[in-house]
Amino acid sequence: MENLLSDKWEVKSKHSSEEVLQRWRTLCGVVKNPKRRFRFTANLSKRYEAAAMRKTNQEKLRIAVLVSKAALHFIQGVKPSDYTVPKNVQEAGFQICADELGSIVEGHDVKKLEFHGWVSGIADKIGTSVTNGLPTDNEALKCREEIYGINEFTEAESKGFLVFVWEALQDMTLMILGVCAFVSLIVGIATEGWPKGAHDGLGIVASILLVVFVTAGSDYRQSLQFNDLDKEKKKISIQVTRNGYRQKMSIYELLPGDVVHLSIGDQVPADGLFLSGFSVLIDESSLTGESEPVMVL
């Protein structure tokens, strides 16, 4: 008996191997109430489930790490070194185009900014000075405007008067009156003949047209007034350094390369790169509705 109860069958109070526990359970499998009998030994089925779950989680984690590494390698592999300066931009004396500048600023792309030599490098590529700003030569400014465009949004076309007439006709009450006018004309002409039987129907039609043109005319005038007010609102002046001198100009005269000076409460007139300053906090709520602060690059 002592030989049978060797180390091969001994169940230790702690750290017994699964092999020993399984043999012990197999040997004592015929005992009465095995759950009570084995209550002080490890539950092998639960241990197997936990091991399987750990293995599954480890595999998921391994896959996630591999996917993350692959994505990181892909991102690092897509380098901005493939950028080619368009021919017309080179001929004008610049080394970076408007689309590339836009992708750097709007996308807050630090990698591209680094590739182009940070702010000083981009200043060299667009032919400006971070201290003196742009030269005031008219021909050079016109050439820059042709390459990079002007600093204004594309305005939506104003609605014409006929559009407001059509919108006024969409009123449900006027539609019902129009149906009534049509029925009145048919019934009146059929019973009393033309033109006596058409009086009521034509009267309704005249009333509908009067309401439509008065409403459309009022909306059209309000639209014109709103456009005028909007244009006045957009007449914003800004402090800019050109040719070493600080001057005041309209935001519509700004060009890439201008050095703009901002004060507390100023509206940022264009996308740009940050040169110097302190405690600068900007949000894009007036354009995007988002009040989250930006530290444009």
UniProtKB/TrEMBL annotation:
Signal peptide range in chain numbering: none
Matching Gene3D superfamilies: 1.20.5.170, Calcium-transporting ATPase, cytoplasmic transduction domain A (2.70.150.10), Calcium-transporting ATPase, transmembrane domain (1.20.1110.10)
Domain P-type ATPase A: 236-295
Gene Ontology cellular component list: plasma membrane
Domain of life: Eukaryota
Keyword Membrane: yes
Family matches, as InterPro entries: ATPase_P-typ_cation-transptr_N (IPR004014), ATPase_P-typ_TM_dom_sf (IPR023298), ATPase_P-typ_transduc_dom_A_sf (IPR008250), ATPase_P-type_domA (IPR059000), Ca_ATPase_N_dom (IPR024750)
Domain Cation-transporting P-type ATPase N-terminal: 119-184
Residue stretches spanning the membrane: 172-190, 202-220
This protein's record includes keyword Isomerase: no
Keywords: Magnesium, Membrane, Transmembrane, Transmembrane helix
Gene Ontology MF terms: calmodulin binding; P-type calcium transporter activity
Coiled-coil regions listed: none
Domain Calcium-transporting P-type ATPase N-terminal autoinhibitory, first and last residues per copy: 6-49
Protein's name in the database: Calcium-transporting ATPase 2, plasma membrane-type
Lineage: Eukaryota, Viridiplantae, Streptophyta, Embryophyta, Tracheophyta
